[in-house]
Amino acid sequence: MDLHERSKPCAWISATALLVLLSGCNAQSKTPSQPQPPEVAILKVKREAVPVSIELPGRTNAYLVAQVRARVDGIVLKREFKEGSDVNAGQRLYKIDPAPYIAALNSAQATLANAEAAVKAATAQAERYNILVGGNAVSKQEYDNAIATRDQAVANVASGKAAVQTARINLGYTDVLSPITGRSGISVVTEGAYVQASAATLMTTVQQIDPIYVDLNQSSVEGLQLRRAVASGRIKLTGPGEATVTLQLEDGTQYPETGKLQFTDITVDQTTGSVTIRAIFSNPRYVLLPGMYVRARIDEGVNENAMLVPQVAVTHNPLGEATALVVGANGKAAVRTIQATRTLGDKWVVEGGLNDGEQLIVSGVQKVQPSMQVRTVAWQPPQQPAQETQQPGAQPSAPSASSGPQNRIARSSPAQ
């Protein structure tokens, strides 16, 4: 075999390698180079009636408070109630030594009897002088003196009656009675203690706490904004006396009873810039005690032109403005500056910046930039995952790559 024939297999191998290389280049040229638009979940927003509510701090106050104080001087002989127990109006709480007041009453009654006897004698003498003065048996001056003596005796009787009444009242004050029905507090004085009317010695306190007041503090600015919104018709009140109030207790639990607004103070506190709002609550089990710190939510009206937007769809720009992304008619994302005034549950209350029916991007916001083409799917609110039942001996399934926020998206065909 000559040299030319031995070189033929090598040439054939080189040609084959070249064909394989060219076919590989052609296959690579057919691979699509354009990435798919990111997929986002959208929600069509709409205007709806949103309740207008505010949350305010406050403290509880007793419905009625009576400070039981001494009204006469004396020694406390007996305490006739149990501290912290319920007492009725007119129930005797303490007994003060009545001996000196009994003596004063007896003395006043004796003085009254003496004055009444003097009236009888003076009246009889005045009647006799009235007859004698006609026959000039007595002088006119003596008759006038007899009339004056009678009138003075009558006045002494009136003074004696007042003294008897005063003595009887003071004797009654030795029985210290509860002025209201409520729950008694700590007894400040004990048996044997000396109390004074001049010092108005505090003996105990009785409070009625069913119902009970809740005094809340609202800034004057919030009150001004609410009044303007009502005047413009943007907010409709539910009616006077119909606004409901709910309470959150100090431990974070919800108070089961619903309260009603009583009034709003018209004076602004110059130190805090707030006004007092008073609500009343039923307190049959005495859960609320005077002085407790609470947070109250007041439903003041309805805003019929607001929108409820999921909180995950709202971000804030460097200026602190609330923003959201929407999908336009051309299928591209656009940014909107919105007026998100407050939260209601897990949603923002939006009062401006969005149009009715716009497609709001709720999920996949982090993958989108303004003016970017996107593919849309319908967004569904998150739900609690159902607990799956496994067969005995079955291995637990590994978490899928789609688990997480994107797993809440309802798959559908991309929007055209």
What can you see in these coordinates?
- The chain has 416 residues and is of the alpha+beta class.
- The chain folds into 4 domains: 41-47 and 306-384 and 402-410, conserved putative lor/sdh protein from methanococcus maripaludis s2 fold (Beta Barrel); 51-62 and 209-304, Efflux pump adaptor protein, beta barrel domain (Elongation Factor Tu (Ef-tu), domain 3); 74-96 and 177-200, OB fold (Dihydrolipoamide Acetyltransferase, E2P) (Beta Barrel), CATH 2.40.50; 98-173, Helix hairpin bin (Helix Hairpins, Orthogonal Bundle), CATH 1.10.287.470.
- It has 5 helices and 22 strands.
- Strands 1, 15, 16, 17, 20, 21 and 22 form a 7-stranded mixed β-sheet that branches. A 6-stranded antiparallel β-barrel has the order 2-9-13-12-11-14. A 4-stranded antiparallel β-sheet has the order 6-5-3-8.
- A hairpin with a 2-residue loop joins β18 (340-344) and β19.
- α3 (99-132) runs antiparallel to α4.
- The protein is elongated, with a radius of gyration of 46 Å.
- 21% of the residues are buried.
- Mean pLDDT is 82; it is low at 10-14 and 386-416.
